[in-house]
Amino acid sequence: MIFKGLLDDARSIRDRDPAARTTLEVFLLYQGFHALIYHRQAHWLYKHKHFFLARALSQFARHMTGIEIHPGATIGHRLFIDHGMGIVIGETAEIGDDCTIYHGVTLGGTGHDTGKRHPTIGNNVLISTGAKVLGPFTVGDNSRIGANAVVLQEVPPNSTVVGVKARVVKIDGQRVPSYDLDQIHLPDPLAQELCRLQHRVYVNEQKIKREEMRDREADE
Q1: How far is CA 193 from CA 152, 153, 187, 200, in A?
Q2: Neighbours of 133 (CB within 10 A)
Q3: CA distance 80 to 19
Q4: pLDDT tens sequence across 36-82
Q5: Is 74 exposed, middle or buried (0-12, 13-18, 19+ CB in 10 A)?
Q6: Residue 95, phi then psi, degrees to nearest 5
Q7: Quick one: angle between helices 51-65 and 31-47, nearest 10?
Q8: Which of these, 59, 20, 8, lies nearest to 38 by C-alpha position?
Q9: What global pTM score does this model have?
Q10: DSSP-assigned letter for residue 140
């Protein structure tokens, strides 16, 4: 059962990565896929209470792939870890189906929670390079998290999240598939707010100029 799931993972990576030519290439050369192979086995050991062996295997995988996944983490089907170096996934993290995670991502805790300490990632979620998702909340289905975002609170489904501290930008309830690997064309709420402030300053400046002209005309 484990290895049938891995075959689905490999085929999914082949279909979603334009650089992948064959399923065999994914099996032999993709570190993100190798991390999944190790994790599926380590998670089985963890679920059967072989905690030391599970952790030993996950640490071996970390040294081999540069990707650290705690054996207690729950990972769904067809996860695509692209490049993967520097990814950290905590013990109580949960990841749904058809998700995409880029290098440098952390699914971690804040240090203030007990029990469930790490995020739950819904289905079809894209987490871009360097993003940090910290805390025991849910990232809704079909959402995108922009590069280097720091997410500290729940993300509604069908949303885009950007910035530090991250802000949610609704996408009109429209489904945003993680197969769309565009990490660049994301709305920037800080830039939008600056534009609104600049507009208000401009309007006020024009109002002051008109009042000054009326005053000069009245004096003449």
Answers
A1: 21, 21, 11, 11
A2: 27
A3: 13
A4: 999 999 999 999 999 999 999 999 999 999 999 999 999 999 999 99
A5: middle
A6: -125, 130
A7: 170
A8: 59
A9: 0.76
A10: P
